[in-house]
Amino acid sequence: MNYKLIALDVDGTLLNDNHELSEQTISTIREVSRSGAEIVLCTGRGPQNSIPFMEQIGLTGYVISHNGAATVDVESKEVVHQFAMDSKAILAYMDFFRDKRVHFDVNTAFHMYVDSVEGMAVEVRSMYENFLMLPAALPPLTEFSEPIVKVTAFDHADVLDKVYEELVLWKPEFNILRSGEYFLDLMHPDASKGNALKQLADRRGVRQEEVLAIGNYFNDITMLTFAGLGIAMDNSPLEVKAAANEVTASNNEDGVHAALLKYCLS
């Protein structure tokens, strides 16, 4: 099959556990791109800390960021589509996180805000540094001039498990998603990697069966099941592997390289 649109998750998929992109994977992605396929990063990161990987590889096109909440043109930095949240409805969730002493950030397409930059715990600041981000102080929501697209909570996995169990009992107006072992996202109910990838495929005139997607976590399931070929990393939870058509090597073993070599270059 000649795949025309290839969606790659970033953390746990494209990058190894040291947040590095291997030269072998870069070389293979470039070769796939030269063969005519369009590469899009489909990530929970924002565009400001995902576009640099596209530039490192030497690619233009699009990034699907914030787990599908905002799609951005790599060169122009234009937001071509975003799912805006109801800012008034966010307030109750922010108060809930504060009451539980769970750290959270509030995101527009290009900006990230937290309650207190100076008061962040060491492990929280380290997390942002690993993801190449430093948030700004959160202003009143009434002062936002851009749509809010995502609210992310960060804490230990067992804490977020309990938070998730409580929040789903609210019959929430948002999509509540475990986007990583230490992350929980709130987004517009229609926002997902799968929906954003479908919209981009339609925009680019690509049929569903011509889409290949590679990912490793629960937030990747919608894009793996949308794609004509969905490939899970070997470091994925069992539920993610079950949702995929195939499984490749882990992110520490250049699984993206192996999958692209097998399905796009063989």
From TrEMBL:
<dbReference type="InterPro" id="IPR023214">
    <property type="entry name" value="HAD_sf"/>
</dbReference>
<dbReference type="GO" id="GO:0005829">
    <property type="term" value="C:cytosol"/>
</dbReference>
<protein>
    <submittedName>
        <fullName>Cof-type HAD-IIB family hydrolase</fullName>
    </submittedName>
</protein>
<keyword id="KW-0378">Hydrolase</keyword>
<dbReference type="InterPro" id="IPR000150">
    <property type="entry name" value="Cof"/>
</dbReference>
<dbReference type="GO" id="GO:0000287">
    <property type="term" value="F:magnesium ion binding"/>
</dbReference>
<dbReference type="GO" id="GO:0016791">
    <property type="term" value="F:phosphatase activity"/>
</dbReference>
<dbReference type="InterPro" id="IPR036412">
    <property type="entry name" value="HAD-like_sf"/>
</dbReference>
<dbReference type="Pfam" id="PF08282">
    <property type="entry name" value="Hydrolase_3"/>
</dbReference>
<dbReference type="InterPro" id="IPR006379">
    <property type="entry name" value="HAD-SF_hydro_IIB"/>
</dbReference>
